[in-house]
Amino acid sequence: MINEIEIFQKNNPQVTDVYGFFFDLAGIPRGKLYPISYLKKLVEGAAAPRSCFVLNVLGEQQARDVGNVDGDPDCMLRMIPGSLKTMPWANGSVAQCHLQFLETDGETLLDIDPRNVLQNLLTRLETEFKYKVVCAFELEFFLCDIDAARNGDVKPPIASRNQRRDTNSILGLDCLESYQEVLQEIIYCAREQGLPVTPFSAEMGRGQFEITLDHHDNPMLMADQTFMLQRIIRQVSLKHRMGATFMSKPVNGDAGTGMHMHVSLLDENGKNIFSTKGGAEASDALLHSIGGMLATLPESMLVLAPNVNAFRRFEAGQCVAVSRTWGIENRTVALRVPFAAGNEKAWRIENRIAGGDANVYLMLASALAGIHYGMTNKIDPGPATDDFAEEVDEGMPMTFDSALEAFKEGKILPEYLGKDYVKLYSEVKRLETEAFYEHISQRELDWFIRFEG
Fold it and tell me: Which residue has the higher pLDDT, 322 or 391?
């Protein structure tokens, strides 16, 4: 990596400082601004507190067992090879690099880093099955009038081209053209950082857009790039005096924000094991994988919908699943198999449950856990759903509290994510939500404070 740094400095002599960052339990980027001369120390390994990974969404330390009674000991962080990049949206004197966390021996992965939770599961899958994971992510987000949003009024920004706010228009070209400057700069910055982005489209909500990262057979790199793309979208939007949010349900009455994940498996010869007969039919491996993902779905809900707001998104008729269902070419089910007849490479599972603010590492880890569990135990997914899946499944946690209980008491996911990590994640989310409920909202005052009668 020293060579990587030297080449970078030679090609970018204007860079004087580097943001070194990681993504925490809530998927929020955190880190420090380092002088570029410090990068070689980040290759060797620098110290950082373990409590970095037990922060709530406000950056407050939550868990008792980590960063509290243990005295908050240090761990080691290192720069991830290939992650040192310029920041095209910023001034030319700063760059960024992604950091990985290790135990102080410099070898063992720190098991409370969500990225390492995924890495441990990928290693297990590749060791036991010899399969390579291929995945892709679709990111939905809202562009907001940042000043109005800070005052509690979430609405689209006024577009510079027509001086109007966006309206609901799925695939509307007028929506794209109205916000062309910011969308184009997002694409430019993403490509400059090596992200395999595909075209933008307008979505169901006002000011809502979708962009996709194309399929990749390096799942860890894909997860990293998904987080990076979220960062780019936020930063470029701010540059244009707009806010970009991945909040699951920012606007009453509008569609929510999802993050759809596509997964398939390749054998040692590069063949997609999810299809058979030259791509004409689904394979047993695909059906068993779906069965396992459905079986683990109740336990996974706290990862896929990680806060109180995320559960507001689950409404029938809003292109979000409310049941443990699967189907071929059916956008109302939890696990969709996109049309792929005759193309063996295209057979895959699309998980349509997750909200836009889910932690990408944990989201992918929970899906792979379900796939491994289903294939190992040959789980039958049951019949495919062909019609509109609008009825809420009683076995699906549809509130934060029920999802927390299902995750904490789960029998399957702890064997994959680690029992200690499940306990830690549950504690942080429980304490975060208790703090959230301590605040008396305006609606409570509007409804319950009475002066008459």
Answer: 322
Which CATH number is associated with domain 2-110? Answer: 3.10.20.70
Residue 2 has pLDDT above 90, yes or no: no
The answer to whether the beta carbons of residues 32 and 2 sit under 8 Å apart is no
Q: Is the pTM of this model over 0.90?
A: yes
The model's confidence at residue 345, banded by pLDDT at 50, 70 and 90, is confident
Cβ atoms < 10 Å from Cβ of 93: 12
Which of these CATH numbers, 3.20.20.80, 3.40.630.30, 3.30.590.10, 3.40.50.1240, describes 123-442? 3.30.590.10
CB 77, CB 83: distance < 8 Å: no
* CATH 3.10.20.70 segments of the chain: 2-110
pLDDT at 239 over 60: yes
Confidence of residue 171 (pLDDT cuts 50, 70, 90): low
